[in-house]
Specification:
alpha/beta, FAD/NAD(P)-binding domain, 2 domains, 10 helices, 17 strands, 27% helix, globular
Length: 434
């Protein structure tokens, strides 16, 4: 590999108390939570739209649950969707077009500087202390500084650039869960059209379990081999289903050359699935594509190593922690098979509502950095539970508050007493302890 040494003079465009890198579900909650504490906040988003999987990802419903009183409750209300059970049986996928305006208003109601279509290119460090970010925008490279940076990029980009240790994929072979593009179909006859919430659903079609039927279609070549699990979620609009079925295995989402190949294949699969629905599913005869994700849905990439690594034993047992900042997180260990169709494990593992400790958000080796969202410190199996949007929203709120407190108190995240975060969360009506 050839290398190029660069020395370049770039402008410094701002100095903030808190920078949040990434405007997805955890990032928007972190930015709003920090701003509500009275600190200056910059939110950096690489796309031209905020919301991440809520909007450009076209993902729904909002799965998982957490303790009462978090920003999850606030956002569900703003999005006009009912509170749902952990697995999503009572859930409705939100209207993505409405969500775009909802999220913009959610952010613009606070004093936040939003930098759109701006990517993180590198970090500014002095020794082990993170000072700010080097960003790439429409007018070239520029820098911004902050007391604390929150990495909400999903892939842990900031932490990676800062040199924090990380893990990727499962320990046996490094493979990650497949990438997907979710899409919505409309024109369904609700008196006939089936709903299937996922791999735990035993709904039947013509006397046969629906997922057994789609598995059989996959084995017989009616559907592509890896599309054995067809998940059809109702939305807030009658006659619609949000479809979570397309997949490409063997993709490393932090290697750019792989992403276009996955995109082409996933969009090809959308056409195949719609034709399958029209031919084989009662009530879907006149269905048509109503919308799809603007970008790949990535379930898994880097997991940034922190002061504590949450493991599957913790979440299966419903472990509590003294330094809890997210309480009663609950979702199945949902490992989409990295090497084939359906689930990676023969029996889906349910968990007991568990805590996520503050130490999972504090990366090793680097000061003034916090991570949030699916890239926090955890094992491959634990990650398959906490990666869903409800839990990521609660993470974002807690860590936004933590970052603001660090700035106000002039201390690094590693030195911040967790009791200070907990006091702030409890004062807002958030359930943290039984």
């Amino acid at each position: 590999m050839d290398y190029l040494d660069i020395k370049k003079r770039i402008p410094v465009m701002g100095n903030y108390d808190v920078i949040v890198a990434g405007g997805g579900t955890s990032g928007i909650c972190a930015a709003v939570a920090a701003a509500r504490e009275g600190v200056s906040v910059a939110l950096v988003e690489r796309y031209g739209i905020l919301g991440g999987n809520l909007t450009s990802g076209h993902i729904g419903p909002i799965l998982g649950v957490v303790g009462k009183g978090t920003m999850r409750d606030e956002l569900l209300k703003l999005l006009g969707v009912p509170d749902n059970d952990m697995i999503g049986k009572t859930a409705l996928a939100h209207d993505v077009e409405n969500a775009k305006l909802v999220i913009d208003n959610f952010i613009s109601s606070e004093q936040i500087d939003v930098l759109m279509q701006t990517s993180v290119s590198d970090v500014i460090k002095e020794g082990d202390i993170l000072k700010g970010l080097i960003l790439s925008g429409k007018e070239g490279l520029f820098a911004i500084y902050a007391d604390v940076v929150i990495d909400a990029t999903g892939d842990g980009d900031v932490a990676f650039y800062a040199g924090v240790p990380y893990e990727i994929g499962r320990c046996t072979d490094g493979l990650m869960q497949p990438v997907t593009i979710e899409f919505t179909v409309s024109g369904i006859d609700e008196s006939k059209g089936i709903v299937c919430i996922g791999d735990v659903d035993d709904v039947e079609l013509n006397g046969e379990q629906f997922l057994k039927f789609t598995e059989r279609c996959s084995k017989n070549g009616v559907l592509p081999r890896d599309l054995a699990a067809v998940r059809l979620h109702p939305t807030t609009i009658p006659g619609e289903r949000r479809v979570n079925t397309t997949q490409v295995n063997g993709i490393n989402a932090v290697e750019p050359e792989q992403l276009f190949l996955a995109e082409v294949e996933l969009r090809r699969q959308i056409d195949i699935l719609i034709e399958f629905f029209q031919k084989h599913l009662p009530g879907y005869e006149n269905c048509k594509l109503a919308g799809s994700g603007d970008t790949l849905g990535v379930r898994e990439s880097r997991r940034i190593m922190g002061e504590y690594l949450l493991n599957s034993a913790d979440i299966v047992s419903g472990r509590t922690f003294k330094d809890v900042v997210v309480h009663k997180a609950d979702f199945i260990i949902d490992i989409h098979n990295p090497a084939g169709a359906g689930q990676a494990e023969p029996i889906i593992q349910y968990v007991k509502p568990y805590d996520i400790p503050y130490r999972c958000f504090v990366p090793q080796k680097v000061e003034n950095l916090l991570v949030v969202g699916r890239c926090i410190s955890g094992s491959h199996r634990a990650h398959a539970s906490y990666r869903v949007m409800s839990i990521c929203m609660a993470m974002g709120q807690a860590i936004g508050i933590a970052a603001a407190l660090c700035s106000l108190k002039g201390c690094s995240p590693r030195k911040l007493p967790t009791t200070e975060i907990q006091k702030s969360l409890i004062s807002k009506g958030i359930e943290l302890f039984d």
